[in-house]
Design brief:
This protein is an alpha/beta fold. 37% of the residues lie in helices and 14% in strands.
């Protein structure tokens, strides 16, 4: 993943395993939306299991998805399994040799995707899609983004009003001043969700992109034995979060933050802001905020006054090449074109000609941000990271809390250099 994980809380769903053995067809999901199923749909049969990270949708939206999908494909038995710690758990399942029919791509080099997943180029989407080359290898596409997003400041307008903030900050100094006003008004300025760790991916991927104006920064790590320094995009980005922590602009106890509670706190105005993707906006609204009270503006990572923002994919759907490939491809197409998941999640739709419905995205674009589109991952960087067992979000945590940030970077760089050498890269 590049960024923007739409993670949620809740209990894990049942532990269904893949039982389908249907062989793939040459054009497995060519039937267009709105055909009511028809002859092509009747040929698609068997059980298909989708392994999702959206634990919050189990027994809720997924019930509707199951009903609607099975109405179109009456020969298919659709099931959902939700898990936490998604990437680690999925990798264990893949290593076991059995995993569900539809999953989100794990953090693997693109050149390994064909070992586990079926190419998806034969899905006849109704139009062009974003990010089609990001999970591709040797001309074949192995992943389809579930939606797109940008990253910025999601804020509670009533909290800003209470704090006397009359205009959104356009520079970093103005942002610090606004955070101080929120703090003085008894409002937690920024929900970091520090303990949950995964929200810190924003500081690993997005803020370095803005500070360095280079979306390929994760790839460029493979070119050096010291990818993390205090004066490069990583050190400067993590230094911002460290400064916010030291000024008391994050939660009172960052080691006991709670993701689900934070959505309620931003919705109520007890917390003023998130630095996350637009996907979180609907979740804040679902937790009690009026849509008109939630805004969205680009994060001012420097004092230039130039608005900048990343354009990112969310999780990529992938199809188990040994699963029910035909039904799985039909499900992926249905999720993109008919489910409404992009609107529910507040995503920029994967289909390029489909307009996003989220009003806060319209507000965001009034600031005319310079967008940075993602670079295709370089396998060498992914291989080194995996060999070094590097958890970048955990490194951010350590960097922020330590008395000596340089020692943290020295340790990570040493592990990186060793892994690079061991791989002969």
């Amino acid at each position: 993943m590049l960024t923007t994980l739409a993670a949620c809380g809740g209990n894990n769903a049942g532990n269904e395993t893949n039982k389908a053995t249907n062989a793939p067809s040459e054009n497995a999901a060519s039937n267009k939306p709105g055909n009511g199923g028809g002859e092509e749909a009747s040929k698609i049969t068997g059980e298909v299991v989708f392994l999702t990270n959206r634990t919050d949708m189990i027994d809720k939206e997924y019930v509707d998805y199951e009903k609607r999908f099975e109405e179109k494909y009456p020969g298919v038995d659709l099931k959902f399994e939700a898990i936490l710690d998604y990437d680690k758990t999925l990798k264990i399942r893949i290593a076991s040799g059995e995993f569900p029919d539809v999953v989100f791509t794990p953090t693997l080099p693109n050149n390994e995707l064909a070992n586990y997943f079926a190419p998806l180029d034969d899905i006849s989407f109704s139009g062009e899609i974003y990010f089609k080359d990001l999970k591709a290898h040797e001309g074949k596409m192995y992943g389809v983004s579930s939606g797109g997003s940008t990253v910025g400041i999601v804020y509670n307008k009533k909290a800003f009003e209470k704090a006397g903030i009359t205009a959104v900050p356009k520079t970093y100094d103005e942002f610090l001043a606004a955070a101080q006003k929120l703090k003085d008004a008894g409002i937690v300025p920024l929900a970091s969700n520090f303990k949950d760790k995964w929200p810190l991916d924003t500081w690993v991927y997005d803020i370095p992109t803005l500070i360095g104006e280079e979306p390929a920064h994760q790839n460029k790590r493979a070119e050096t034995e010291t990818p993390y320094t205090l004066d490069n995009a990583y050190g400067k980005s993590w230094g911002i979060l460290r400064e916010l922590y030291e000024k008391g602009f994050l939660e009172k106890d960052v080691n006991s933050t709670n993701w689900e509670q934070s959505k309620k706190d931003v919705a109520s105005g007890d917390f003023g802001m998130y630095l996350l993707g637009n996907w979180v906006i609907n979740q804040v609204i679902e937790n009690g905020a009026a849509s008109e009270d939630i805004g969205f503006f680009p994060f001012p990572s420097d004092n230039t006054g130039v608005a900048k923002a990343p354009l990112n994919p969310d999780f990529f759907y992938a199809v188990n090449k040994n699963g029910n490939v035909q039904a799985a491809k039909a499900f992926v197409q249905w999720m993109i074109e008919e489910s409404g998941y992009d609107d529910f999640s507040g995503f920029i739709p994967t289909l390029k000609d489909k307009e996003p419905k989220l009003p806060q995205l319209a507000e965001f674009n009034t600031y005319s941000p310079k967008y940075f589109e993602p670079a295709q991952p370089v396998d060498a960087a992914t291989q080194i990271q995996n060999k070094a067992q590097l958890d970048q979000a955990a490194t951010v945590q350590e960097f922020v809390l330590t008395k000596d940030p340089q020692k943290v970077l020295d340790k990570v760089n040493a592990a990186w250099a060793k892994a690079k050498k061991d791989l002969g890269l």
